[in-house]
Amino acid sequence: MKLTPLIALIFFSVSGGAYGIEKLFSTSGPGMGLLLLVAAPLIYGIPHALVCAELGTAIPVEGGHYHWVRRGLGNFWGFQQGVLSWVCSFVDMAVYPVLFTSYLQSMVASVAPGKHVLFSIGAIRIDLNWMICLAVIATFTLLNLMGAAWIGGSSVVFAVICLTPMLLLTVVGLAHLATGGVSPVAPLTSAPDQSAWNAFGAGLFIAMWNYSGWDAVSTVAGEMENPRAHLPRALAVSVFLITIGYLLPAIASLSVGADGSAGWRSWESGSFSSVAESLAGPWLQVTVTVGGMFASAAMFSALLTTNSRLPFALAEDGYFPPWLAKRSARRQVPVVSVIGSAAIYALFCLSSFSNLIIVDVFLTNLALLMQVAALLALRVREPDLERPYRIPGGALSLVLITTALTGVTAWAAWQQYTENGTQAVTYCLVAVAGSSLLYFPLARRRKRAAAVAGI
Question: Could you tell me if 239 and 210 are in contact, meaning their C-beta atoms sit under 8 angstroms apart?
């Protein structure tokens, strides 16, 4: 995988464009939403990207962040990094085929869930909606079997398709903004009685969700061309591209004001299609909707590539069954891991797991903090480790990065706890406890297998 496809793969692993950020503004307000889009990369996205740049160039191997944590903190924590990150993907990855179908549904009403039920299995109904999700999963699973280079190349094409509608929306929206007399930053919050502090906290999880995933591409480092040189450059370009890709369409869309069906007060994921219709009519609405469909599919494709390398790496290290580490003879793709992961994602598409997205972000941030701990541990334990990219600024930079990432994740977790109670915390504790308990029998089996192989 060369540099440009690598940038595109990071783009879809993290963002996919402004599709899906609409709820940030109905939750926090126009001014605070834009502030969060600027603040989140500074206090969350860029610090994590810097961690990934240093560790990814120092340890550029297949399995990426699993191996970073394993080398820095030991086998137990490495196992938690790999397993919890893969478990997170079950919920995360099921969202993208459903989003694809939702965008299609806005143009073809018969695709709506519950219509055209084909057959039922107990309480589960198999309908046309799920069959379309399955078709998306099958198509991009086949593309994944062609190898990471194919995914990177296709991601470049998908990026052009996804960004073009947002560019058109931006041009039309900014022209409307210049003549419409609407301030895109007013009001600051979504309600008069909502304080700036509460508005910032309410939207922080949404902003974090849209700026997470910088570590994902590290899992295919073994399939990159010169990762030690290309990875830092690709991360830097991607941070800029993603931030601008959020800000400009959002500012342009806020030109419609707060009134009417396209007003920001009622925005949900996919509302930019309605904004496009308000700004320029059906042609732009269809264009943005098609862009959203391609963005959802491309994000699934990119993340299937990166997530499927986690069970593969765990199998190579002897924790998971060896057949999960089987590669195709010609392209060296982990076939069983790719197909097995895709099958799990297809099953999760059968039900609504939107309430578990918060759990996904909790576990993602836990994995992020383990990576920060691994960075610090390796700086102390292996000071002579070759680091083609080293975070500049010495100890002060490490303190600032650690403080920023720890502080923002802790505050976001507390905000979610105060607003939604203990459900997400309980699910996370169950996942962490299950992964921790699973480690010990698998580690014993791995040790026995190593002893037998040694004999």
Answer: no
- Per-residue pLDDT, 101: 84
Residue 271: the pLDDT is 87
pLDDT value of position 286: 92
Identify the residue whose tokens are 């720890």: 406
Residue 210, token pair as written in the block = 């849209």
The pLDDT-based confidence of 296 (bands split at 50, 70, 90) is very high
pTM, two decimals, is: 0.90
Measured in degrees and rounded to the nearest 5, phi and psi for residue 428 equal: -65, -45
What residues contact residue 252 under an 8 Å CB cut-off, 6+ apart? 169, 170, 171, 172, 173, 174, 176, 177
Average pLDDT score over the chain: 88
Distance of alpha carbon 168 from the chain centroid = 25
Tracing tokens 């219709």 back to the chain, one arrives at: 277
In this model, does residue 91 exceed pLDDT 70? yes
Label each residue of the chain as H, E or C: CCHHHHHHHHHHHHCCCCCCCCHHHHHHCHHHHHHHHHHHHHHHHHHHHHHHHHHHHHCCCECCHHHHHHHHHCHHHHHHHHHHHHHHHHHHHHHHHHHHHHHHHHHCHHHCCCCCEEEEECCEEEEHHHHHHHHHHHHHHHHHCCCHHHHHHHHHHHHHHHHHHHHHHHHHHHHHHHHHCCCCCCCCCCCCCCCHHHHHHHHHHHHHHHCCCCCHHHHEHHHCCCHHHHHHHHHHHHHHHHHHHHHHHHHHHHHHCCCCCCCHHHCCCCCHHHHHHHHHCHHHHHHHHHHHHHHHHHHHHHHHHHHCHHHHHHHHCCCCCHHHHCCCCCCCCCHHHHHHHHHHHHHHCCCCCHHHHHHHHHHHHHHHHHHHHHHHHHHHHCCCCCCCCCCCCHHHHHHHHHHHHHHHHHHHHHHHHHHHCCHHHHHHHHHHHHHHHHHHHHHHHHHHHHHHHHC
Are 199 and 28 within 8 A, CB to CB?
Answer: yes
Interatomic CA distance for residues 423 and 417, integer angstroms? 8
Does residue 156 contact residue 8 with C-beta atoms inside 8 Å?
Answer: yes
**pLDDT(116) > 60:** no
pLDDT of 120 strictly over 60? no
**Rounded distance between C-alpha atoms, residue 46 and residue 31, angstroms:** 22
Spatial separation of the C-alpha atoms in residues 156 and 154, rounded to whole Å: 5
